[in-house]
Specification:
- The protein is α/β, with parallel strands linked by helices and 303 residues long.
- The chain folds into two domains: 150 residues, D-Maltodextrin-Binding Protein, domain 2, CATH 3.40.190; 101 residues, D-Maltodextrin-Binding Protein, domain 2, CATH 3.40.190.
- It is built from twelve helices and eleven strands.
- Strands 2-1-3-10-4-11 form a six-stranded mixed β-sheet, with helices on both faces. A five-stranded mixed β-sheet has the order 7-6-8-5-9.
- The chain starts with a helix and ends in a 5-residue tail after the last helix.
- 38% of the residues are buried.
């Protein structure tokens, strides 16, 4: 009997041991997201004017910030988006962001608010207004826009509003009196107004139109470029004038050489920007100032 009990106990122990969970296996490698910059690095905001909606703007310009972060030690650059042109210009006037990428009209204003030009963002020949219409549109000349709706992103959008308005006035249409000018908030919204027949024509400029063709090929296929204005000068990169000069010079140098580097060229391609070119305050004052004189004479007061 005693032997029987011992045998039963051993059998039970063996059974229980088979029910125990197996010992933990070795874990694979664990990855943690760690900031590439030291926590003590100074953060500088790089505010881009509303070329795109905020989500797309972050997607397009964050690689530029990463590029700068790898080449300018001790600081961190971050993209800052804005909801609208007025929202963006309010930030500039308050001197909130340290680095900015404004359109040329905003550049002229920012010069008076204490910013200095570091570079021209793109080829001057690419900075022109274009008029988008449906392919089935009956509009063939500016006079056909009498009483019709023209869509623009914003009143202060130089290439996408002011230059088209000046072009129309110079070509026989007193645009502010004869047409219905509507400001719809963004470049993409302006283009879509033409597609949805909410406007007879819509104004924009080449980079957003190229992006629209890539992002919305079906809608773009129903549209055409009706007219275009002469070019002016492209967007600028500016720095607030209280930022240390050595840092500003570093950023200028990286931007000016970016197109020579395959990685930089790939980032520029996605930004629809050929390169960052040398430029200064005087060039913007002369070029944009001359256009603004024409605008006030042919169109009316500045927005």
């Amino acid at each position: 009997m005693k032997q029987l009990i011992i045998t039963a106990v051993l059998a039970c122990a063996a059974l229980l041991s088979g029910c125990e969970p197996p010992p933990p296996t070795a874990k694979g490698p664990e990855y943690d997201v760690k900031p590439s910059m030291a926590s003590t690095d100074t953060v500088y905001r790089f505010a881009i004017h509303p070329l795109h909606n905020p989500q797309k703007l972050f997607a397009v310009y964050t690689p530029l910030m990463d590029y700068l972060n790898r080449r300018v030690p001790g600081v961190v650059f971050e993209v800052e988006a804005s909801n609208s042109y007025p929202h963006y210009e309010t930030k500039l006037q308050a001197r909130e962001p340290e680095f900015v990428l404004p359109n040329p009209y905003q550049t002229l204003k920012a010069l008076d608010w204490g910013y200095d030009v570091l570079a021209e963002a793109g080829n001057s020949n690419d900075f022109k207004g274009i008029f988008i219409a449906r392919k089935d549109s009956k509009i063939t000349q500016p006079e056909d826009l009498q009483g019709k709706v023209i869509a623009y992103p914003a009143a202060t959008a130089l290439a996408a509003a002011m230059m088209p308005q000046q072009w129309l006035a110079a070509n026989g249409l007193p645009v502010m009196q004869a047409a219905k000018n509507e400001y719809v908030g963004s470049q993409e919204s302006s283009i879509l107004n033409a597609y949805h027949k909410k406007s007879a024509v819509s104004a924009t400029w080449p980079p957003p139109w190229r992006a629209f063709q890539q992002d919305h090929p079906k809608e773009a296929a129903a549209l055409k470029v009706l007219w275009e204005t002469p070019p002016l000068i492209n967007n600028s990169v500016m720095v607030r004038n209280d930022i240390p000069k050595p840092l500003a010079n570093q950023v200028r140098e990286v931007l000016h050489r970016m197109h020579e580097d395959p990685e930089g060229a790939a980032i520029l391609y996605k930004m629809h920007t050929a390169a960052f070119y040398p430029a200064d305050n005087a060039r913007y004052r002369a070029t944009v100032g001359g256009f603004l004189t024409q605008f006030t004479q042919q169109v009316g007061p500045l927005p």
